[in-house]
Amino acid sequence: SSVTLSQQHARALFAVRTKAFGVDAGERRGEGARRAREEGTMDGGNGAILYCFMGRGRTVWADHQASSSLQQPQKTASQMLAKLSKEGKYTFQLSDSRTSFCLVDHLGVVFGCVASSAQLTSTAAMVFLGDLQEQFYCQFGAQEVQTCAENTTQFRRFSLTMKKAMEIAYSGGSAKIANVKKQIEDTRIIMSENIDKVLERGERLEDVMDKSEQMRDTADAFRKKGRELRRKMWWQNTKMKLIIALVVVVLILLLFFGFCRGISCIKK
User: Fold this and answer.
1) Where is the V-SNARE coiled-coil homology domain positioned along the sequence (predicted)?
2) Could you tell me which residues come within 8 angstroms of residue 7 by beta carbon, excluding any fewer than 6 positions away?
3) Minimal CB count within 10 Å: which of 1, 78, 107, 133?
């Protein structure tokens, strides 16, 4: 019963961890999903990434808007840029149907996007922003980024690259995101199998311990019975020797009194 409880506890813990990794992040439904579908239908976009941007400080260096339903996107981007300076990954819930994902690199450059909450997971968004960051540093050097003014316009032409990246992300590039999801699912399955194997190994160890205890008890019982058997055999041998000695004595006495007729042999 303790093993069954530990299995249930391990699996429940694993389910919580896999949800934290974003495996079940697509479970949001309802009004957010309906709004996202309406946005994708009205605007002719892909319905997932509505707007992407990059910059530093309060200045948007380059951006591209795929959905006209998003009002004043540059203002929203500037507000997020002002909050971000430390390297890392960030998520902002803008509304029930929209989420903003941001990636800040070691130079303080922010790559971000506004997307449909129901149609884009955090993992997929970070993969997209990582590709965007890689393409940016392929076009512009790190030294150029470090020395530029905050309100520079020299990176404005990167907007065309962002547009192409958004088009690729959910046409041919969707295979990459699907592949990432598949890898996460495969990892979850492997981890689940490993947990089952560990628990099964624990059951086997408990069986071995039970069997060793049984063998120890059997050995103790055998030792006790052996000791009792030795005592019994010794007593039987002693009794046999005593009986033989008594018989010999009786025979000697019979012979003595038979041939000598008792005391007469002694008197002679």
Assistant:
1) 176-236
2) 196, 199
3) 1
